[in-house]
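Pilot study result, target chain (199 residues):
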Amino acid sequence: MEIIPLGRTEFGSPANSGNSLSREEAEALLQDWVKNERLQLHMRQVARLMGRWAAEKEGLDAAAQWRWELAGLLHDADWDLWPEQHCHKIIKELEARAVCPEVIRAIASHGPRYFGVEPVSKMDKMLYAFDELSGLIHAYSLMRPGGYDGMDLKGVKKRLKEKSFAANVSREDIQDACQRAAIQQDELINFIIANQLQG
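Predicted structure:
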């Protein structure tokens, strides 16, 4: 299925800077739009990683941490019901709800070669970085008797090299995202292992 580029690079209104949905509003939107439990788990995993990174690595306050988490939580919100409108539908919804343009732009740029929006801010770059790698590491956990227990960097890197493992996960995107965020892949893998929501 072909994903349609967004055709723009500006999102939301500067007047809405700092605005968020409440946790209750975000959860209601997630439940309403995403019926696939595996997709819900992926979105929650990326949300957790975004929030933890914002707190631990960026030193942001609670409100900013939640904006990072919100971007992760809703980045694939329209994929389940409207795959042909992926990114388009959730962006329009968040713009209509006067959400912070930083959050909307992060969602718009989480797949630059699909949506045509380059990750610019740290939030943009980290959402792009966590998205694919989080999925691969979760897939690896499912094939291990102990799940995440005892998982290490070496094991994940071995799976990354196996093109047939989690073949839908783009190794090219993972490498590109790490380069854009100026983060060593090993650091990102270790952070995900330590912080991933196990589900």
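One observation from the pilot: The two ends are 28 Å apart (CA to CA). A full batch analysis is planned for the follow-on phase.
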